[in-house]
Amino acid sequence: MITMENVCKSYKVAKRNAGFGEACKALFHRSYEEIQALNDVSFTIHDGEMVGYIGPNGAGKSSTIKILSGILTPDSGTCIIDGRIPWKTRMEHVRQIGVVFGQRSQLWWDIPVIDSFELLKEIYSVSTLRYKNKLEELSELLQLQELLKTPTRQLSLGQRMRCEIAASLLHEPRLLFLDEPTIGLDAVSKLAVRDFIKKLNQEQKTTVILTTHDMQDIEAIAERVILIGKGKILLDGTLTDLREASAMQEESAGNSANLDQVVANLYRKMNIM
Amino acid sequence: MGIKKTVTLYCKYASICVRSLMQYKVSFVLMIVARFIISFGEFLAITFLFSGFEEIKGYTYSDILLCFAVIQISFVLAEVFGEGFQVFSGTVKRGEFDRMLLRPCSLILQVIGTKFEIERTGPLITAGIMLWIGIRSSQIQWNVLTIWTLIAMIVGGTLLFIGLFMLGASFCFYFIEDTSLLNVLTYGAKTHGKYPIDVYGKGIMGFCTYIIPYTLIQYYPLQYLLGKTTQWQFAFYPVGIIIFLIACYMVWRIGVRNYRSCGS
Fold first, then answer.
1. CA distance to partner chain A, nearest, from residue B19 (Å)
2. CATH number of the domain that A77 lies in?
3. Considering only CA atoms, which of A152, A158, A159, A193 is closest in space to residue A176?
4. Domain count of the fold of chain A
5. Do the Cβ atoms of B16 and A115 come within 8 Å?
6. pLDDT tens digits, one per residue of B168-198
7. Measured between beta carbons, which residues in chain B are less than 8 angstroms from residue A73?
8. To pair with A273 at 20 to 30 A between CA atoms, which of A142, A220, B68, B238?
9. Every domain of chain B and the residues it spans
10. CB nearest A94 (choices: B16, B19, B102)
11. CA distance to A123, B124, B256, per residue, from B110 (Å)
């Protein structure tokens, strides 16, 4: 179970105007602007839930994921995951979670995928038997057989993403974070990834937290949606709740509107763009 | 994590690095050759210099060769094992450090595990030649203590340079850009460390003892090794590098904590 209570996080960002002169000035005197990335964020997620975490760019999605996965320490507030405080017990915590960043690879670039997997097996101290079984199962479900012997750099984006997901599940985590897992994928790969995540959640009861800008991902996978904007949780409910919130005043965005329009409408209405 | 586990894991990391390097065979061979040629040039420079002088401040040609060989070997070994720290600013910029934080194993192990630069070993050939000439024409009394001194100088030197690399990497947490200031201390020390530090005068001696403890692995044990002093305790000065390493590790820890509270 994940409980996050009153979590706040702000960054200092160095600001300067364009131009060479300004750049020189900034060498000696920097003006900082404080940006409130997370402002009093609270939510609870139960075991086995599948949650879509959405919001416009810069809303605080990544900061939340980073705090939940123990990379970042918040300024204030508490966060407890299965009794652990992520940033205080890094080693024990990360053993129990899997994280996929859609825009970054966790596989070693120049060597065949299977070699990366074997190193991960060592890092997570997975026993040989469990590793073998898990690998067999994952390569069956994600159709990796052909890919395992290829160096990562020669994989297509869709192939790589399937390998990334497998890599983050080798140690059988109870909790999986997916940060934009379908970004840049073709239709077939997208569907394969979605199907897999759904099955994983249903059969293994893995808790999944997914951030995305692709509303079809949310529609296909998530039962629950959390909307964040300007560092604040604005909505926490089902897709129907999302539609209703968006349509309350503007009749044009009724049930007939597609989800992208619904969300765009909502962002505008809540003034979080 | 136990020591055995750590060592096996490091070996796995290293083997991946070597396999990645081998993917680019031509570049691999060229790097080794190029670095060998550069270091051989430095060796020739010393040789030519000594065709004009008998000795520098009491050090003969063979003394200097021995001293340079020790520094050269230390530096190369530090580069082989510690290159991960040298490229650390890139690691942070590309967000790979976030990934390291997500893995249940030591951060330092992961950082040094990103690079295992056997292609930097070219200068070891030159260093071997210099060491051989230096030892043959010196009057070193070989016994357990002198053999220890030589090995301690090399190991201590390697750790000293790795400590400096780690210090440089720690600065990446504050200034995302490269800090070439530290290179003055590392590459500079490699270049100038071929001469015993007392050659440079008192000021430099002080700096190299109390700020960055080069003298612990070079000047003092060298005095003992060459029989210029009977003070046997000089042979154990390289052990002091451990204190320097602990200090570097503290700075690293503060850097990591700062990174985790500020983000990238």
1. 7
2. 3.40.50.300
3. A193
4. 1
5. yes
6. 999 888 775 555 677 777 888 888 888 899 9
7. 260-261
8. A220
9. 3-262
10. B102
11. 10, 26, 14
